[in-house]
Amino acid sequence: MILLVGLGNPGSKYVGNRHNIGYMVVDEIARAHGFESERVRFQGLTREGFLNGPGGRQKALILKPTTYMNESGRAVSEACRFYKIEPEDVIVFHDELDLAEGKVRAKAGGGLAGHNGLKSIRDHIGPYFRRVRIGIAHPGDKNRVSGHVLSDFSKADQAWLEPLIRAIADASPLLLDEDDAKFMTKVALATQPQREKNPKPKETPEDGI
Questions:
Q1: CB neighbours of 160 closer than 8 A, spacing ≥ 6?
Q2: Number of domains observed in the structure of the chain
Q3: Is residue 205 one of the residues assigned to a domain?
Q4: Which whole-number Å values give the CA distances from 10 to 6, 66, 75, 143, in the listed order?
Q5: Is 5 helix (H, G, I), strand (E, B) or coil?
Q6: Which of 34, 118, 141, 186 could lock 171 by a disulfide, CB 3.0 to 4.6 Å apart?
Q7: Is 196 part of a structural domain of the chain?
Q8: Catalytic residue among 19, 33, 94, 115
Q9: Strand order in 2-6's β-sheet?
Q10: Which pLDDT does position 197 carry in this prediction?
Q11: How far is CA 162 from CA 22, 28, 78, 130, 209, in A?
Q12: Does the residue 87 lie in any domain?
């Protein structure tokens, strides 16, 4: 079994926050791949289902910790213990200040860039879980970070946000084989289609030649 963790804060006041993009993504994965209804377990909300990856069909558990961001590791470790899931089979979807809006990067381990949800998970299951970093951009001033991540995406943001969330959900089965490069490529192609190259102008001989 693979554990797909979406990070966010519970409650209606946080639903549209940038910090809750992890919740948004795993909700779309559940919808797109026909997961079961949500249940209250492991200090969070869970949904079970299957993903059809390149190597075959695999069972997956979606978890949205409801402990608030700073204690996300409690819910993750509880689910891991119950199902005997290794850290390498945990994929965490989260907001990333150090990426431009709409950019996505997948990686295993590495620095946590001050993200309290990731720190909590590391403290409970170690640093070797996998991550899908979803760019929300830095506000430019560290004193504005808290207000930035805890504010809602704007109406203008929906133009890139909704296609991005759909693209991540559609590409998520590629994560089963730990093929992060193919996953990132599929997301990028779906959200930033390559423009058709302008055809080369025909060379015409200059007058007198």
A1: 101, 102, 191
A2: 1
A3: no
A4: 11, 5, 13, 24
A5: strand
A6: 186
A7: no
A8: 19
A9: 39-41, 44-53, 56-65, 2-6, 90-96, 130-135, 104-108
A10: 45
A11: 13, 10, 31, 23, 56
A12: yes
How confident is the prediction for the chain on average, in pLDDT? 89
19 is annotated as an active-site residue: yes
Q: Three-state SS for 64? A: strand
pLDDT of residue 105: 93
DSSP secondary structure string, 84-144? T--GGGEEEEEEETTS-TT-EEEEES---TT-HHHHHHHHHH-S--EEEEEE----SSGGG
Residue-wise pLDDT for 84-124, tens only, equals 999 999 999 999 998 999 899 998 877 766 688 999 999 99
End-to-end CA distance of the chain: 72
- With contact defined as beta carbons under 8 Å apart, do 184 and 126 qualify? no
Q: Which two tokens stand for residue 129?
A: 């879980």
For the domain that residue 50 is a member of, what is the CATH number? 3.40.50.1470
Q: How far apart are CA 24 and CA 7, in angstroms?
A: 9
Along the chain (209 residues), what's the average pLDDT of each consecutive run of 10 residues?
Answer: 96 94 97 96 97 89 95 97 96 92 86 82 94 91 88 93 96 88 92 56 48
Inter-residue contact 90 to 3 (CB < 8 Å): yes
In a domain, 207, yes or no: no
Per-residue confidence (pLDDT) for residue 107, from 0 to 100: 85
Scan for tokens 């200090």, then name that residue. Answer: 43
Residue 131's domain comprises 2-191
pLDDT of residue 90: 96
